[in-house]
Amino acid sequence: MPFNRLNHAILGEIRPRFKLHSSLAPDQVATIIINAKDEDPTVVGHESNGLCMLKIPMQDRHYWSPELTVRIEERADGNHGSYLSCLVGPQQSVWAMFAFIYGAIAMIAVFGGMYGLTQIELGKPSWMVWLFPIGLILLPSIYTLSKIGQKKGRNQMLHLISFLYHSFQNAGGNVERTD
């Protein structure tokens, strides 16, 4: 499977992205994916306005279960066919929580550290100067936690990607990677 190639251009990628090309029209692509989803009990999801969301069924889902978002667009160069922009990542609530945690730690570390340094410059003792180094330790720790979660959901991620490729093979359509 071409998705498993190591891409060293994006170091530390948490939400892998890839693009596919199909010679079919966007509405045919969406129909193939939805029909395959209806036949396969290991994948659930929906399609709306050229955006397909594929997930693992609720009984098999855990906190780190991934989602596959497929955006289907008509080719802009005038040729027949469509592009599929695929994004694999954690559930939206998990992604939002990690984004909030990153932002909160960064803000507390920077502003708290600046306040602590200002207090020290004024000759007053301040424990808040320690917020900056603590933040520098917490940010990589949170990143490591997200990578551990990504590994836990790896098999489900590969299943969703494999489902996407096999849905086209079983329907007699073609799809190939463009990046």
Describe what this molecule looks like in 3D.
This protein is α+β, with helices and mostly antiparallel strands. It has helices at 26-39, 92-121, 131-152, 154-171, and strands at 17-22, 44-48, 51-55, 66-74, 82-90, 176-177. It is elongated, with a radius of gyration of 22 Å.
Outline of the structure:
The protein is α+β, with helices and mostly antiparallel strands and 179 residues long. The protein is built from four helices and six strands. It has a six-stranded antiparallel sheet.
How many whole angstroms does the radius of gyration measure? 22 Å
**What number of domains?**
2
- Major pleated sheet: 6 strands, antiparallel
Q: Can you identify the CATH superfamily of the largest domain? A: Kinase associated domain 1, KA1
Strand order of the largest sheet: 2-3-4-5-1-6
| Arithmetic mean pLDDT | 85
Low-confidence stretches: none
Distance between the ends: 14 Å
Task: Please state the structural category.
Answer: alpha+beta
Give the second-level CATH assignment, the architecture of the largest domain: 2-Layer Sandwich
Determine the strand fraction and express it as a percent band.
15-25%
Overall helicity: 40-55%
CATH class term of the largest domain: Alpha Beta
Shape: elongated
